[in-house]
Amino acid sequence: MKIALAQLNYTIGHFEQNVEKIVSSINRAKQQGARLVIFSELSICGYPPHDLLTHKHFVDKSIQAIKDVAKSCVDIYAIVGGPSYNEAPTGKLLHNSAYLLGEGKVLDVFHKTLLPDYDIFDEYRYFEPNTEKYRLAEIDGVKLAITICEDIWDDQPTSSAFDRGQLYRDAPMKHLSKLNPDLIVNISASPFSYNVEERRFEVFKNNVARYSKPVIYVNQVGGNTDLLFDGGSMVLNEQGKILHKLKSFDEDFRIIDSTFTKGKTVESINHLNDDIRIERIHDALVMGISDFFRKLGFSKATLGLSGGIDSAVVLALAAKALPAENLRILLMPSQYSSQHSIDDAVQLAKKLNVKYDIVPIQNIFDTFRNQLRDVFEGKPEDITEENIQARIRGTLLMALSNKFGHLLLNTSNKSEAAVGYGTLYGDMCGALSVLGDVYKTDVYRLANFINRDDEIIPINTITKPPSAELRPDQKDSDSLPPYDILDPILFAYIEQGLSAEEIIRKGYESNTVKRIIKLVNLNEYKRYQSPPILRVSSKAFGYGRKMPLVTKWN
Predict the structure, then answer these.
(1) Contact 34, 255 (CB under 8 A)
(2) pLDDT of residue 164
(3) Distance separating alpha carbons of residues 281 and 448, to the nearest angstrom
(4) Closest among 268, 223, 231, 226 to 249, alpha carbons compared
(5) Cα 4 to the chain's mean position, in Å?
(6) What are the residues whose beta carbons fall under 8 Å from the beta carbon of 508, sequence distance 6 or more?
(7) Whether the Cβ atoms of residue 23 and residue 202 lie closer than 8 Å to each other
(8) Minimal CA–CA distance to 496: which of 104, 100, 159?
(9) Residue 170 near residue 132 (C-beta atoms within 8 A)
(10) Alpha-carbon distance 484 to 115, whole Å?
(11) CA dist 524 to 43, 117, 213, Å?
């Protein structure tokens, strides 16, 4: 039996487009002699639909779209993800389901058992877990154990910060394996993080080892606001070797044979190192920018180009994603801006062939100071005046955005966001935060990756000491520890969940650690008001990290 893997980029709630993509792949599979085509989790409506699932009309539309797709399934079968109603009198209203389509109709529906509710996942908010008797699907004599994403991630730890065993009490495949399936099918919406590919492979390989069955894994691809999906669908044989691996960060389609256990293996997953990690982050961010604009119906962007490394990297990524002719940017020098920063910004804009305007802010800033002179009488200049400059720039960028319809890209990085080194309604403005999940040390690595074949970003931008240039001779190091010290401390606290004492035991200076952690906790209110952040790590600010704004905990 020939089986097709359809790795597609869905738009949440765009049923017409999603149905068209799915039906097109079904017809393509049929033309190539496939008997079964497999799609990803909640593919009919796109993942994650969040509280759209609380709207009956949305769920009904999803189910009707599934039925419309089923009409195309004549002489071919399909597995399509979508919500279904829970027919039991108690429990949540919905199931997260895999629909088996064939003979022009819905033949069977299989429900997800393990519903994640950690990090960015919140499936227990909407779905009831499967409580039905486990069963297999059978097509042309081939018996399939149909699972949905987390169903084969049953060995998840409770938390990286707690030494407390596994999260789940049961394993769906333990029950399905007793029915002697020929292969495991896993439809998924597994979001990207730079290290998830290795973890996925271990999960699939462990399932193969445990149950001695090959695995077909089909993931969705594309950006849905802050969540990025890298695809990377794959097929593992009975020895846990990868026979097929689909593209990352792009749609893909592959026909395989049900005797694939005898096929030639491909290279295994690459061992993660800095080069691979940065390349993955780069590709994910380009895809995330592109899909954010395309799915919202926008095509043009703006940002403030300062001559610093953050805005330079964002501009280079945006020029690749949109492309460059859809960008219009502002250079907004003040009396504190260095000439080399202006020159670097102009050089980059010209290199990328991006339209730019230079709008000096000194006169506007002087007007603000003059208007506030009586109010501020007797008070020395301090961070207030620095923030006024940032807010002037934010206002100018929003004016350009309003006038010409260019969405504003935010250029703050994760290190700055973590410690509050940014100005609300100023440099924290934007429709989308591109680097908000990228530490400063990795921003430098991204710049070098962008320059791997040609000097796109001026070398001076990369090598000069970072500065906000809001006061004379200002350097980031005046307010913060060096980034090669700051970033590992932030990583240990945010991603690893370590306490101050545990971080200090790693060799970091006690007062520095305590000060940084205090800054992270104090600035939660700023991050709460920041734009959505493209998620590339295992713990990004935003939906997957919910902290109280008002707390005495430190």
Answers:
(1) yes
(2) 64
(3) 13
(4) 231
(5) 26
(6) 485, 488, 489
(7) no
(8) 159
(9) no
(10) 38
(11) 34, 22, 46
Q: Exactly one of 21, 112, 205, 295 is catalytic; which is it? A: 112
By three-state DSSP, how is residue 102 classified?
strand
What is the rounded CA–CA span in Å between residue 307 and residue 476? 15
What is residue 260's predicted lDDT score, i.e. its pLDDT?
A: 63
**Looking at 45, 73, 149, 429, which residue is catalytic?**
149
Q: Is the pTM of this model over 0.90?
A: yes
Q: Find tokens 């010290």 and name the residue.
A: 485
Tokens of 193: 């993080």
Which residues lie across from 3 on neighbouring strands? Answer: 36, 256
- Are 245 and 234 in contact by the 8 Å Cβ rule? The answer is yes
Residue 497: count other Cβ atoms within 10 Å of its Cβ.
13
Cα–Cα distance for residue pair 131/480, rounded to 1 Å: 53
* pLDDT value, residue 15: 98
The pLDDT value recorded for residue 467 is 79
Active site residue 41: yes
Phi–psi pair at 165, nearest 5 degrees: 80, -150
Cα(258)–Cα(183) distance, rounded to whole angstroms? 9
Position 304 confidence tier, pLDDT thresholds 50, 70, 90? very high
DSSP at 538: S
pLDDT of residue 158: 72
The DSSP annotation for 416-472 comes to HHHHT-S-TTTTT--SEESSTTS-HHHHHHHHHHHTSSS--S-HHHHHSPP---SST
Share of the chain above pLDDT 90, in %: 86
From 30, 41, 469, 526, the catalytic residue: 41
Which amino acid belongs to residue 554?
N
Size of the chain, expressed as the number of residues it contains:
554
- Whole-number Å distance between alpha carbons of 201 and 469: 46
Euclidean distance between CA atoms 437 and 412, whole angstroms: 9
| DSSP bridge pairs for 545 | 542
Buried b (16+ CB within 10 A) or exposed e, 144-180: bbbbbbbbbbbeeeeeeeeeeeebbeebbbeebbeee
Higher pLDDT, 465 or 39: 39
Q: What are phi and psi of 436, to 5 degrees?
A: -65, -10
Residues ≥6 apart with Cβ < 8 Å to 102: 70, 73, 76, 77, 78, 139
Pairing of strands 142-148, 242-245: unpaired
Q: How many CB atoms lie within 10 A of CB 14?
A: 14
Of 508, 473, 469, which is closest to residue 490 (Cα–Cα)? 508
Q: Which of 466, 285, 432, 451 lies closest to 352 in space, CA to CA?
A: 451
- The answer to whether residues 61 and 104 touch, using CB atoms and an 8 Å cutoff, is no
